[in-house]
Amino acid sequence: MGFKKFDDINIRPSKEKIKEREKKQKREKVKLSKEEKLKAKEEKKKLKEEMKNLKKTDRSISAYTKDIMDFVDIDEDDRFIMKYGYMDLYQIKTKDVHALSESDIQRHIYSFISFLRAYSEDFKILSMNFPVNTTTQQMYIEKNLKVTTNPIAKKFLQRKLDELIFLEQNRFDKEFYIMIFASNKEEIEDRERVLYINQNIAFKVEEINLEKKLKILFKLNNFNTKLN
To answer: Where are the domains of the chain?
Structure first.
């Protein structure tokens, strides 16, 4: 089984990644121009700083903390391998219950009860404020800004872009997740099938990418830390 090493997740650089970049720099040592030498010097300084910060972070994690944490690794399907077995996270699709009629509310309640009866294994529902993501809208507006020549349109687009940046930095969405557990890989796969089969109008889920899963778990273990 090939476990993830988190090299593709932008949390912090690993020792192996930093060393690999240092080796690459040494291999590429040829005749450089003055500008290239200056750039290489800056990169080397940056690598040293990253390694220094990484060592400082590693030292700050006590042996006690490492011992009490249940996480061991991540498998090729981005599931978490724990000391006791497996765990995975899914996002629950939400809706505005205040916009539903009384009969629709009752129908959703009965549908959720139906799900609880069908999925009899252990699970945990999490609620978390997550930063608003306006990346797609920002990219669209930035693309239009580059090709627009009309100064009035540019001013309007820039104002809209500033609003989206402000929302992303200052506003949060309340999101809900379901955490499921199993003792082995076959069992977690079976429980995922049961989860998907028993979705209904009141309870629907969708997959979460690995980076967001790590951010959710980081937030769970660092309540006072603001997510980016």
So the answer is: 15-60, 74-221
Dmax over CA atoms of the chain, in Å, equals: 77
User: How many other C-beta atoms can be found within 10 angstroms of the C-beta atom of residue 157?
Assistant: 18
Secondary structure string (H, E, C) spanning the chain: CCCCCCCCCCCCCCHHHHHHHHHHHHHCCCCCCHHHHHHHHHHHHHHHHHHHHHHHHHHHCCHHHHHHCCEEEECCCCCEEECCCEEEEEEEECCCHHHCCHHHHHHHHHHHHHHHHHCCCCEEEEEEEEECCCHHHHHHHHHHHHHCCCHHHHHHHHHHHHHHHHHHHHCEEEEEEEEEEECCHHHHHHHHHHHHHCCCCCCEEEECCHHHHHHHHHHHHCCCCCCC
pTM of the prediction?
0.59
Q: Which residue has the tokens 């009752």?
A: 106
b/e sequence 30-53, b meaning 16+ C-beta within 10 Å: eeeeeeeeeeeeeeeeebeebeee
* Those residues with Cβ within 8 angstroms of residue 192's Cβ, 6 or more apart along the chain or in another chain: 88, 180
Rounded CA-CA distance 212/228 in Å is 11
Query: 90-115: per-residue pLDDT in tens?
Result: 999 988 888 889 999 999 999 999 99
Angle at 100 between CA 99 and CA 102, to 5 degrees: 135
Q: What is the pLDDT of residues 148-199, one digit of tens each?
A: 888 888 899 899 989 988 888 778 878 899 999 999 999 999 999 999 999 9
